[in-house]
Structures are given as structure tokens and as C-alpha cells.
Amino acid sequence: MSEREFIPLRIAVMTVSDTRTEGDDRSGDTLADRIERAGHLIAARMIVKDDRSAITAALHDWAADPKIDVILSTGGTGLTGRDLTVEAHRDLYEKEIDAFSTLFTMISVQKIGTSAVQSRACGGVAQGTYIFALPGSPSACRDAWDEILVHQLDYRHKPCNFVEIMPRLDEHMRRK
Questions:
Q1: The pLDDT value given to residue 25
Q2: DSSP state of 147
Q3: Counting Cβ atoms within 10 Å, is residue 37 exposed (0-12), middle (13-18) or buried (19+)?
Q4: Which residue of 72, 75, 128, 168 is 20 to 30 Å from 161, comparing CA positions?
């Protein structure tokens, strides 16, 4: 069996924040740097205010864009009243990737102990697009990318990965 060839994905990065700007978006920069170093493409990037309807609308538009394969958001996954990213994600999800949250928590516990309980990182699929909500700290973005996403978004990763099932993510929306 021959070795699989790398398939670059088009990944959009959304920072959810009332205070971040392009000049100080360290978490978005962390993700963009890692995405590009892995050989993927930055399909889009934006900062969205902590507003559920604005987040949902931006996610919906990106998920409907055939030039975007994956959406990573950072920020708004905590427990405060302004943390609405997870709710916005779940407004769109057709299927939630429950094990992403579990695995992220397991990794976080090793690094920050019981403080990991405060994260609500999540992942799912909508309109044939993978969508992940990551915490707003650069270290959490590094952990999610380096420990989970860099592998699952690489077609060469075995025994299985997200890329190999991408063509079937929206099969329920196609005519039989």
C-alpha cells in the first residue's frame, strides 16, 4: 500500500472577542501560524463580537462557503455571561463531535489540572464543514491544534482522520 499524499485544507479562523483587534489577536495568530506550518491554507479570518447572533451568522456564512473546509473559532467558550460561542456553534451543528470536547479536556487536565473544568471547547459538523470552538488563550489553541487537530486534519494520519470522511459529511443533504 502506498503512502497517502497530504491534502491541504482551507481553514477559516474566527476570533470571538469584544476587545481584540487584528494587531493583538494572539490566539488567532497562533492558529493561523500553525495552520500554515502544517501546509493548510487560511481561507478567511475575522474578529466577531461576543454576540450569539453575530457569531451564528458568521459561522453559517462560512459553513455555506464551498471554499472553506474547516472553521476554527477561538474565544467565548468559558462560563461568563458574555461567553456565547458554544451556544452559537450548537445553533448550527447537525452532528456534534462529542469526543473532541472529551479529548481536549483530557489534554487540558494534564496541563492546567482541575481548571480544565471551566472550558467548553466543542466541535461539530454543519453543511459538510467541520467547526470547532476553542478557548481564547494561545496556549489552549496550541493544545487543541498540536494534540488533536493537526493529526485529524491530516489525510495521512492513521488509523483514521477527519479528512477521509469529508466527502460524506453532507450526504444527508444530497438527493438519493
A1: 95
A2: I
A3: exposed
A4: 75
Dihedral, 115, 29, 22, 46 alpha carbons, nearest 10: -90
The residue behind cell 506550518 is 37
DSSP state of 153: T
Nearest Cα neighbor of 143 from 109, 120, 97 is: 109
CA pair distance 139, 130, nearest whole angstrom = 22
Cβ atoms of 12 and 70 within 8 Å: the answer is: yes
Of the pLDDT bands very low, low, confident and very high (cuts 50, 70, 90), residue 1 is very low
Name, in order, each residue with C-beta under 8 angstroms of 18's C-beta and a sequence gap of 6 or more.
49, 50, 82
The three cell numbers locating residue 10 = 482551507
Domains and CATH numbers, the chain: 10-169 (3.40.980.10)
Separation of alpha carbons 145 and 143, rounded Å: 6
Name which of 153, 116, 145, 127 is nearest 63 in CA terms.
127
